[in-house]
Give the backbone structure.
Amino acid sequence: MNIREKLEAWEHEYLCEYAAFSDQSRGRDVAEPMCDVRTIYQRDRDRILHSKSFRRLKQKTQVFLSPEGDHYRTRLTHTLEVSQTARTIARALRLNEELTEAVALGHDLGHTPFGHAGERALNEVCSKGFRHNEQSIRVVERLEKKGKGLNLTAEVRDGILNHKTTGNPSTLEGKIVQLADKIAYINHDIDDAIRGGILQETDLPRNCTDKLGNSTRNRLNTIIHDVIASSEGTGDIVCSAEIRQAMTGLRSFLFENVYTNPVAKGEEGKAKRMLQELFGYYNQRPEAMPEEYLEMVEQGEERELVVCDYIAGMTDTYAVLKFQEAFEPLGWKH
């Protein structure tokens, strides 16, 4: 019995009956020999971690565009916080932590530069629409590794696709990530808004903080403990009605006071127009895109989708650079 087989046997001894067991995965679209050391979900996690799209998350906006301080969240640090919260819940409930981590690390791979402003920009100009969760699936199935994709398991792809509120993950591990995403952004967006001087802790609605706590640490502790206690032994991932109501209240408060705040989001209109201008530019001039994207168009991929692939994969700084190259006159060079 090799190491992987021992780990699979351990899962059946330790994990709860509702867990997604590694040796019962629905597998990959393209069959591969099994690793003798890592389980199938460990390999998925490693593939995501080593992907180019994962590395690019470090220069993509979470909420605040190009913040001057070093301590504001990026799309990468958001992803890591989601992963940590999700893993804590999965371990406590004796679910598959490695599947949970793989879904968490991959859930935002298809996100645009400039956060949800970028997503809205592409959704408005692309006739097919644009949704970052669907783009994340396109990244892992079509775009990574020069068109070969990462060949991830069905369970990981399902969790990535269904992590949005409207999704319905097929595994409890996927449901954990779906909830951990909200837990993470509600709390870290408050923390960033306080750091940016947009909010003070005392501005938060008392009916929510009385239930959840008066600091990021306390709120995370309260919510995570509640999810674990409410979900254990149920075959579902839930939180109590009281905590869910308080989280919904904080989320609504953030939409009213941070996500639409002119101080925090004043530059979003510029970012949105910039991406839409780039979309029009590359849609008319596909030859201006890198060769790998031009080849996709020449092979019959819909031009609009390929243009979205290119733009969505950009970091904030790269998008600004490409906009300058496309629309700003360059000085004459002899």
Summary: The mean pLDDT is 94. Residues 3-52+68-111+132-264 form a domain with the Hypothetical protein af1432 fold (CATH 1.10.3210.10).
